[in-house]
Amino acid sequence: MAASYTVCRLQTRGRGSVAKCLRRVDTFLHRGIGTKVVAAQTEAAVKHDSVEKNDGRKSLYAVQAERQEQAERSVLISCYSRIKHNMFLKYLSRHGDIKKHFFYENNGVYAVVEFARQESVASLLEGASIPRVSQESVVPFKSRLLSLRNLDSGESSNRPSSQRAQPQTAPTINDVMQRLSKQESIDQQITQLTEAYQLTEENISLRYLVCSLLKDVAAGYFPECTIKPFGSSVNGFGKLGCDLDMFLDLDGISGQNMKMPTPGLCLEYQLKMGNSERATTQNILSVIGECVEHFAPGCVGLHKILNARCPLVRFAHQPSGFQCDLTANNRVAMKSTELLYLYGELDPRVRLLVFTVRCWARTHGVTSSIPGAWITNFSLTVMVLFFLQKRSPPIIPTLDELRDLAGPADKSVIEGNDCTFVSDFGNIPLHGNTATPGQLLREFFDFYASFPFNKMSICIRKGTEQNKPEVAPLHIQNPFETSLNVSKNVNAAQLQRFTALCQESAWLSCQSQTMMPKSKSEGSNLQHWGLAALLQPSRVAGVKRRKQRAVGRISESLQSVIESLKSGIQQ
Ligand code: GTP
Ligand code: MG
């Protein structure tokens, strides 16, 4: 990419922000015990404010409102592969000032262009033409997904580019392990891992843009609706390549924000009655799903999964490469997202540890992208949060403590469940736990290597283990719907694998041979140490060798360590 058109980067999240986070760890560690985070003087009643809280932190509501507005001013353009960036931007700027833009590669080159003003998008769309195609069967649905053609040269095909455009995929585990092995400490490795995998600023913008494009489809029926991303796309724990969870929010239209009637005459909408809220949600998703499948350009392979506990439609958005799950009436999940985001923003070690544990779990097959008896990323994140609450002193507060700190504007009851917790970071007292991310990782493995899963349940609301209320191998209380177990799907074999892997990693973490930085490389192969060694294929707990070539790279010393561990377990 030409230097003059380097990709714009914000510092809210993305590569580069981890270093900033670590500086915050440092500042944080020097604060007094029990002191409050420097108070951000915002009115508690203004929940959706966009005022920056301390250290530039914003509430998820504020971030979402800002991002959604940016996405509305943006277009997604498929470009031909030899596009000259300067010429392209000059051509578009006829419609108005361009605020930000970036190019990315996904089986061809795409550009995300954010105009400074909404009118520019309208002007651009006004000037766009319907393609001349041989078939007459095109669906005349105009959207902000466009294609750039050069009629002079006849160039229109979008092949992979020879120019530099960012890929939107995660680096391979082997690449990351090489990078980790070049670091000088475990803490540096943890930071490096997070930086390698976290969603980039551009990827987050693209996620909001896809939501905005889909909103335009749903707006055909519900003009005032919004589509908001939730889950790992926005909670701060998203890894490049993670799915895009979307929530069709009709609250602004339906009775959720109903006005109190005033005396005298008034007009009401006549509305159709559904059989139940669930049936209405299923019908809405079914109809919107049909529109997405048949009208929305770029959306393919739609499946309606309407009988799930949380009905959804799943499809792929080809230009972005995102696997999308669209839900409606899923406000509890939005609340869980907000809670996870808050915990991640409270202390930078939370994100570092969640990222590292998620990556460790994925590498060892503890989690999977395929639904099944595996531990989910959400469950795993709750396990990390619980572990951090159990530190002495605790690193993060319990959910009950966050509820007790809530102001009147934070009150939230969804379907009878109390989802109240404080939204203002400034009101949350933190304690002076000074453990480093590397120490915490080791303690995490120790903690779960011997956790009494057979008797106890994990509960981040109380921050202490509770007696298991039901027979399930793994019981993790749903933070808001407290009678539910978020890990109900996990079977005994999967839990056993997880425990055995924790035991193995806890043991490896104590081996100075494995944990000592290896500065010298042998030939071109770096020796994997520290976190990279923990990500090597495991041989315990019936964990199969996943890939022969990966196994082949285990260093001799590590193999002998694992063999001795194996014999120790057998004894
Ligand atoms: P990945 O997609 O695996 O990266 O993580 P994710 O956090 O996005 O998980 P997932 O896509 O499975 O779910 C999206 C969001 O829905 C989560 O972040 C939670 O906020 C919520 N969620 C998922 N599973 C549960 C559950 O069992 N109970 C509750 N209350 N919320 C859930
Ligand atoms: Mg997700």
CATH T-level fold name of one domain: Poly(a)-polymerase, middle domain
Measured as a percent range, the helix fraction is: 25-40%
Described by the principal axes of the CA atoms, the overall outline is: globular
* Average of pLDDT: 83
> If helices are DSSP runs of H or I spanning 4 or more residues, what is the number of helices?
18
What's the gyration radius in Å?
A: 25 Å
**Largest sheet properties:** 5 strands, mixed
Q: What's the CATH class label of one domain?
A: Mainly Alpha
GO biological process, one term: RNA 3'-end processing
Cofactor: Mg(2+); Mn(2+)
GO molecular function: metal ion binding; poly(A) RNA polymerase activity
Keywords: Magnesium, Metal-binding, Transferase
Topology record:
Layout: H1 17-29, H2 60-72, E1 74-79, H3 85-92, E2 98-105, E3 109-115, H4 118-127, E4 145-147, E5 166-167, H5 173-181, H6 186-197, H7 201-218, E6 226-230, E7 244-249, H8 277-295, E8 299-305, E9 312-317, E10 322-328, H9 331-346, H10 348-363, H11 377-389, H12 399-404, E11 413-414, E12 417-418, H13 437-449, E13 456-457, E14 466-467, H14 492-509, H15 512-515, H16 531-534, H17 548-552, H18 556-570
Parallel strand pairs: 1-4, 2-5, 7-10
Antiparallel strand pairs: 1-3, 2-3, 6-7, 8-9, 9-10, 11-12, 13-14
Helix pairs in contact: 2-7, 5-6, 6-10, 9-10, 10-11, 13-14
Bound molecules: guanosine-5'-triphosphate and magnesium ion.
Guanosine-5'-triphosphate (GTP) binds next to helix 9 and helix 11.
